[in-house]
Design brief:
It is built from 32 helices and 31 strands. The strands form six sheets. The chain has a 17-stranded mixed beta sheet, with helices on both faces. It has a five-stranded parallel beta sheet with strand order 2-3-4-1-5, sandwiched between helices. The chain has a three-stranded antiparallel beta sheet with strand order 6-8-7. The longest helix has 32 residues. The chain is globular, with a radius of gyration of 34 Å. It is found in: Cytoplasm.
Amino acid sequence: MDYILPDLLRKFNSLLLQLKEVSGGGSSAIRLADDHVLGFVDFLISKLVLLSTKSRFTDEVKVQLQTLADELRFIRSCLMDMLLQNPIQELESLNISIATLIVDAGFFVYFCPDKMEDEELTMTNYWSLGLHDSLETVQNVQQQAAGLFKKYLPLSLQSNCPSSNELEFVDFLINKLKEVMLSGEASIYPLKHQMEMVNQEMVTLRNCLSGVAELMGNSQIGFLLTRFKHAAYQAKYVLNSLMAGEGSLWLHKLGSFVITNDIKILQKEVKTTWKMNLDSGDGMQIKIEKDANKLVGRKDAVAEIVGLLTEGSSHLKILSIVGMPGLGKTTFATAVYKHPFVDTCFEVRAWGSLSQVYQKETLLSSILDQVHANPSHDISGEDVGQMLYQSLKRRRYLIVLDNIWDIETWSGLCSIFPDDENGSRILFTTRSHGVAAQANSFPYALRLLSREESCELLWLKLFNGETCPRELSRISKRIACSCKGLPLAVVLIAGALNRTKKEKDSWEKVARTFIRSQSIQEQIWDILDGSYKLLPDHLKPCFWYLGTFPRGTTISVSKLIRLWISEGFIHQPNSGQKSLIQEAESYLNDLIDRSLVLVTRKSSKGGVKECRVHDVLREFCSAILKQERYEMQEHIFPGGISVLYDTSLRKRVIFTDLSPIGRVYLTEQVPGTGSGITRQGRLHYGSVPKYKYLRVLDLANVLFRNSADTSDLVKIAELVYLRYLAIKIRTNRIPSEIGNLRNLETFHLSGAIGRVTLPEAVWKLVCLRDVIMDHCFFSFQHYSQEFFEDSTQLDNLKSLSTIYIWHGNVEKLTRMLPSVQKLGCIISNSWQECCEASNLFKLLECLRELRSLKMSFHVRAPYPFKFTFPSNLKKLTISNARLPWDEISVIGQLSNLEVLKLLSKAFEGQQWDMREGEFQKLKFLKLDSLDIVQWSASGEHLPCLEQLVVLSCQQLEEIPSCFGEISTLQLIELKCCSASAKDSVKQILDDQRDYGNHQLNVTVVGSQGGFP
């Protein structure tokens, strides 16, 4: 037993003896709500909670310990205070029952022996028996309280209950309780805490029933709904009589305890019914991911974790999923996170992904965006954590943290998540059992797949649920068994087999490449090696290049493709029908098809916007990079900067993995430690000119202290072989020396604010493909007349943003950019006074190759004028134009438009009436921060729409009902809109299901009311 001070020991002994006298029905001066008794109960609760974390107990005993602690806490807060204030004869029997409970729990917890004298009685058995007896006494207290409440409850409430729809009545009461709580009504103050508990449990049960009602037959939940309605009706009586000053206060408190307890019991029964349906497979069909292989061998495990998340202690509980790389921890956590029952049991959910080197502020901002209806993007540092804490306060939340590497990371995050004793949960994945233990989490060790499960997963990947051909059955089983139960290995082999003929001889050849008898880690390394060897030669450098990105990071596809091109990995097809970018995209899709690259985010056009590589694959790529292509050595500098350099005089390639300040690729052998990094972990631009064969310099993500000024850019301009330059700057003037970079293809600037002055020499760089400026812009306004007369066409320039368009130079600009495909621009205020404002759009219409256009207006767009765009335009983004909705018809008639984003004040006016024949090919529509109120459309509009996103359109009354008839619809996202708009989306979802579209994904955030 833990050490206890002698004085405290004597007090506890005396208390237990007196309480035993009370429990036996004898007379005693002590009352249950005496401060000493309450202190002893608090001690018991804390002792039980502490014991539930001890590793020596079985999981079953831990759950019993936590349950007893929760029940004692509930009785202490709801009943013992009532007994203190109302020492009346009617409550004496309840007083005795509670004394018995404290004595039973107190003696077996307080006087637990260090070892058992009876050898047949183990410590586990001692605790199991004691906990079982105490929990039985808890039930006696609950039953006695319920009996007392029923005894004094008016007979009309016991027999009469409204016959209206159960859930409608419950919704009415929940809203009424909420209104009363917010009103500050003085009459309910003595019972405010108890009624808040009633309301909280009612909301939780209401959400659970919403989630399972569509998944279970009405006959299964009808009885539960009726009981819920009765409990709600009793809560209504307590609330009304309390506000009217009728009845005894002790009866109201007793009633709140009984009602809350009844609702908790109903919650458990709903979950039990749900599990029975899940086990039988009758009625409920889990739709977590379209890809069926996500749950192979994990169905029971998912159900177990879902149960642990939604049941048990009201305190904040932490669960961890532990397993080796490639075991599918992220996939498993995703299945749990997206489970429909989990969705209904938590008020808010959020997902955060961590890398080995992660930015805490970035992670917290990402979570804040998911839980806050309208997060501020102006906060930073500790303010982000504080705002997240406040946003989670008093809300039942689930936070998933994917890939916690060390306990320091967890220690820096755990204080941000409040514990309001409302059933909130945190789930994280980790490779380390030590991290799981030190975080005081409930660890769940993810097991390997069985041989049968491995084979099932392989067949699903190869045949999409169809039966495996008989001639391939035996060899496929042999291949699946060779994976040693590791899902990643199965997926990788499936990726290789998918690229071969479905013939026995072909598969035998693949099997000989893969199958060896080694340890699991060696086995997966051999499988990766086999996958790499089967890659076509043109894909191999693209694959190992992924090892240059920091572990766990999300990779921008557009950036990756530019890097591939700059490194010379992409070759122009002989046919000439594809551009380099299109060819690079086909390379990436090939790697995705082979399961070597994972898609993390799709673009609005349906392509891949962001991707990542599994940590195991990333390590393999790094090994290939070091061992096969280069003989590399590593130097670690202060600040965590890791520099890998080539030691061979024959090879001149070196890359630098700068976790806190960016990545550098150098193409010259580095003598000693002359890496361009100072001993203080800061970038030193003075050494850059030494690397005269440098091709790629990527410093877009450096800290501000390492950003470049004008003099630094002059030094960089000496790298005449540079093809890719991405750099953060702290100057708004780019020196003319940049014009020396005659091989430059990508020029990416960030860090500056406002107008940046680009020298005329930049536009003499005929190899330029992409000029990108983040959060800043440039213009041609200050250029000389000679520049426009002498400048040649930039035939290779495909992407240009962000340019400030002044009315005096737009014609010359468009003449210079005949091949531009992606253009981002700001329309200057000079157009407001220009009588030929329509010329702007006429001239833009001349850009025949333009596919993507993003326009932001500094002032209201000049009106009236002819609003025209290039006919080949596929993506259009407009903001701040403040045009009337009538003008949108010109956009609607663009025959190739697939993506339309109307952002902040793009159009103004309360009514948008869509016209026949408009937007016939549109697949993605986004409305953000518009003042629209009514939106009318028919079933003939938007026939190809796949995704609808509506953000911060708070006056919009509803989404047109015709969206329920669009067969192609895949996603509706609604954020910060009205409750009526939310209701209309619910109706659209119901209509889509009636039409058989069960794949529609609906997300509603920040609207009034929940969404089932």
